[in-house]
């Protein structure tokens, strides 16, 4: 299990990631947020109606999960063929499925060069 210090470090970095993304992306493309659930961080894209300041829905787009057996963090992304009205199906990130350092995977979520997460 990751230490409390490591969790706080990851949380701080996830907050920065969401803040940076929300400053640089218009609301129509969805705002970033995250939630901590047990041993994982779940990232959401919050969708807004064009003429509204109220959230229309939150879409889970990525999750960073700690696997205690291998002491590694795993990065999962929402399966592209998921209907947003059904339960989420997760798949390992294609090019960066795991790493011992969660901050490395947070960089993958932030940059999303292949547009697997935020696209």
Account of the protein in words:
The chain is of the alpha+beta class and 119 residues long. The chain has one domain (4-111). It is built from 2 helices and 6 strands, in the order αββββββα. It has helices spanning 4-24, 102-111, and strands at residues 31-37, 40-48, 55-67, 72-78, 90-92, 98-99. Strands 1, 2, 3, 4, 5 and 6 form a 6-stranded antiparallel sheet that branches. A hairpin with a 4-residue loop joins strand 3 and strand 4 (72-78). The protein is globular. 24% of the residues are buried. The model has no long low-confidence stretch (mean pLDDT 88). InterPro entries: DUF3024. This is DUF3024 domain-containing protein.
Mean pLDDT over the residues: 88
Alpha-beta content class? alpha+beta
Please give the largest β-sheet.
Answer: 6 strands, antiparallel
Number of helices: 2
Number of strands: 6
Order of secondary-structure elements: HEEEEEEH
Any idea what the radius of gyration is? Answer: 14 Å
Distance between the termini: 31 Å
Q: Shape, please?
A: globular
Tell me the number of structural domains: 1
Strand content: 25-35%
Unreliable stretches: none
Helical amount among residues, as a percent range?
25-40%
Protein name: DUF3024 domain-containing protein
Organism: Vibrio algicola
InterPro entries: DUF3024 (IPR021388)
Pfam family, one: DUF3024
């Amino acid at each position: 299990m990751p230490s409390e210090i490591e969790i706080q470090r990851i949380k701080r970095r996830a907050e920065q990631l969401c803040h940076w993304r929300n400053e640089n992306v218009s609301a129509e493309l969805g705002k970033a947020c995250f939630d901590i659930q047990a041993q994982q961080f779940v990232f959401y894209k919050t969708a807004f109606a064009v003429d509204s300041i109220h959230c229309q829905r939150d879409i889970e787009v990525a999750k960073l999960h700690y696997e205690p057996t291998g002491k590694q963090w795993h990065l999962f992304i929402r399966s592209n063929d998921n209907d947003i009205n059904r339960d989420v199906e997760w798949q390992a990130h294609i090019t960066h499925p795991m790493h011992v350092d969660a901050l490395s995977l947070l960089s993958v979520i932030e940059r999303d060069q292949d547009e697997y997460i935020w696209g």
